[in-house]
Design goal:
Layout lengths: L6 H4 L11 E5 L9 H17 L4 E4 L13 H9 L6 E8 L5 H14 L4 E6 L6 H8 L4 H6 L1 H13 L34 E5 L2 H10 L3 E3 L8 H11 L11 E9 L3 H19 L9 H6 L4 H11 L2 E4 L1 H15 L3 E5 L5 H14 L20
Parallel strand pairs: 1-2, 1-9, 2-3, 3-4, 4-5, 5-6, 6-7, 7-8, 7-9
Length: about 375
């Protein structure tokens, strides 16, 4: 594979007045009084809006044992979204590689590639996406550190399954991920021209350096590790070596941002999302509370301090205010793409946020013949 074969599958094109391509990160959040079905309806509505308005890609994150996050099975959700979209790139942001056998991931994403040819990204992380006890149940081992330490070896194994190129004599040499390249070697077989590009995800320097050394695209979790963003991006760029995948670095950052029709409503919504994080960080995970519940909640001084720190990295307000915050963040980081996650109790609020951002950046309007996405809460 030549580096010139991949740019359209990795690099996006900025639309409207956006400084870089804009994308969506979805945690499939479930609000109090809502169900996982409601949350998935929201995901469909946002993915359709994102596609119609020129967002570049739509990723789903893997999390476990969190009542307010219904994204434990990214591959299943992505298959569902593929059935409701036709052009936007779909991917994992990410699949937590140590939680799964590499062969299983290769099979799942080979299947997704067959469902949505040329539209699938495989983003990989090395964290568990949950607490230690849940990670142990997922991996059926208490030696959790081994999975993270073995990440480069697991990544190499997964890559070989995707490319079907284990060397002669390798124990897995006669094992094939299907759907995959082996089908082209069978009588009458035809090789698919696409293979999901691998992205490395991170919130520190480990994956930044590894992505650079391997010449892979890199996604940084600015939305929960803002203090490490610029050092990690610098490390990625300094470590980068051209590869068959990329001839130059390409880095996106995940950004927590919520736009509403007035500033006061934005503050109410992010307070509720922050209360959800307080509960998660103190071992009390639950559904995303309503803004009314958050306003009535009696925060301790320590919780108030956490809220202030957490919301300092959430860009929120009117569309103009969020645009200014995103533009400033791009200038400070030099990110090649901004992937926006908008967390709120209501699906309609989340959908409206992406609509406002598309409008304020002058992104393309829905193409002729396309219906506007229905409001998810109206379907609940």
């Amino acid at each position: 594979m030549d580096a010139t074969d991949q740019p359209d599958e990795i690099r996006g094109t900025a639309q409207g007045t956006a400084p870089v391509p804009l994308s969506v990160l979805d945690l499939v959040t479930v609000g109090a009084g809502r169900t996982a079905t409601d949350a998935l309806r929201t995901s469909v509505a946002i993915s359709r809006l994102a596609e119609s308005r020129g967002f570049h890609r739509y990723w789903v994150a893997e999390h476990h044992s969190m009542p307010g996050v219904a994204s434990s099975s990214p591959a299943v959700i992505l298959a569902h979204l593929a059935a409701h979209t036709s052009r936007i790139r779909l991917g994992s942001g990410g699949v937590m590689l140590p939680n799964h056998a590499p062969l299983v991931i290769a099979e799942q994403f080979g299947t997704l590639e067959a469902i949505a040819p040329g539209r699938v990204d495989l983003g990989l992380g090395r964290a568990p996406g949950t607490d230690g006890a849940t990670a142990a149940a997922l991996r059926r081992t208490d030696h959790l550190g081994e999975g993270a330490d073995d990440f480069p070896q697991q990544l190499a194994e997964l890559t070989r399954f995707l490319d079907d190129d284990f060397p002669d004599g390798h124990p897995y040499g006669r094992i094939h991920a299907v759907p995959g390249p082996v089908q082209a070697t069978s009588p009458g077989g035809v090789q698919s021209p696409h293979r999901p590009p691998i992205w490395l995800l991170g919130s520190s320097g480990f994956s930044a350096r590894l992505a650079g050394v391997l010449g892979l695209p890199f996604a940084f979790a600015h939305h929960f590790s803002a203090q490490n963003t610029i050092p990690a991006l610098d490390l990625y760029r300094e470590s980068f070596r051209p590869s068959e995948v990329l001839d130059a670095p390409y880095a996106l950052i995940g950004v927590s941002a919520l736009a509403t029709d007035d500033e006061k409503e934005a503050r109410r919504q992010v307070l509720a999302a922050a209360l959800n994080m307080v509960r998660l960080r103190t071992g009390r995970p639950g559904l995303v509370p309503t803004p009314e519940e958050a306003e009535a909640y009696s925060f301790s001084p320590m919780e108030r301090e956490f809220i202030t720190s957490w919301n300092a990295n959430v860009i929120h307000g009117t569309a103009d205010e969020v645009r200014a915050g995103l533009d400033d963040l791009h200038k400070r980081t030099g990110a090649d793409e901004l992937m926006i996650t908008g967390n709120a109790h209501s699906g309609d609020v989340r959908l409206r946020s992406y609509e406002l951002l598309a409008d304020v950046y002058g992104l393309p309007t829905a193409r002729p013949g396309q219906d506007a996405p229905a409001g998810p809460d109206a379907q609940a």
